From TrEMBL:
Protein name, per record: Mediator of RNA polymerase II transcription subunit 9
Xref: Pfam families: Med9 (PF07544)
GO term, biological process aspect, one: regulation of transcription by RNA polymerase II
Cell compartments where the protein resides: Nucleus
Gene transcribed to yield this protein: MED9
Stored CDD domains: Med9-C
Function: Component of the Mediator complex, a coactivator involved in the regulated transcription of nearly all RNA polymerase II-dependent genes. Mediator functions as a bridge to convey information from gene-specific regulatory proteins to the basal RNA polymerase II transcription machinery. Mediator is recruited to promoters by direct interactions with regulatory proteins and serves as a scaffold for the assembly of a functional preinitiation complex with RNA polymerase II and the general transcription factors.
Length: 121
């Protein structure tokens, strides 16, 4: 008791709230790569350095660059909407803008009905 903390203190602390079950969450997307994962320049720089030194590591670094290009191709092809043509994108954009315009008109209409009066106290 000299420390000022009762010996049973750790038992009395409530447990942290439980995380929501995984079933309630939408399927998790794969973790997003860090910003530096998109850069090819460090590998190109390494290739140039290896070539300047006449190093045998140049083949390994070239393979790393090739693998990075393949990974980025897979990532791009897996992006949502990548198969949508520019015309379809324009049509979707036009539809969404029309929805926003309609909703704004309805919002203005409802505001003008004075249904949302704030009571004065």
């Amino acid at each position: 008791m000299a420390s000022g903390v009762p010996s049973g203190r750790a038992v009395e602390d409530p447990p942290p709230p439980p995380e929501p079950p995984a079933e309630q969450k939408p399927p998790a997307a794969p973790p997003a790569p860090a910003q530096e994962d998109f850069s090819f320049l460090p590998l190109v720089h390494d290739i140039i350095k290896c070539m300047d030194k006449d190093s045998q590591d140049v083949h390994q670094v070239l393979n790393e660059l090739k693998n990075k290009f393949q990974e980025m191709r897979k990532l791009i092809s897996a992006m949502p909407g990548i198969g949508v043509s520019p015309e379809q994108q324009q049509q979707q954009l036009q539809n969404l803008r029309e929805q926003v315009r309609t909703k704004n008109e309805l919002l203005q209409k409802y505001k003008s009905l004075c249904m949302f009066e704030i009571p004065k106290e």
